[in-house]
Amino acid sequence: MPEEIEDAELRDKAEKIVEAKAGFRANVFSYLIINLMIFVIWLIVALTTNPHVWFPWFLFPLVGWGIGIAFHAWAVYGGARFEGRREDMVQKEMDRMKKDQGD
Question: Residue 67 in contact with residue 31, Cβ under 8 Å?
Answer without folding.
Answer: no
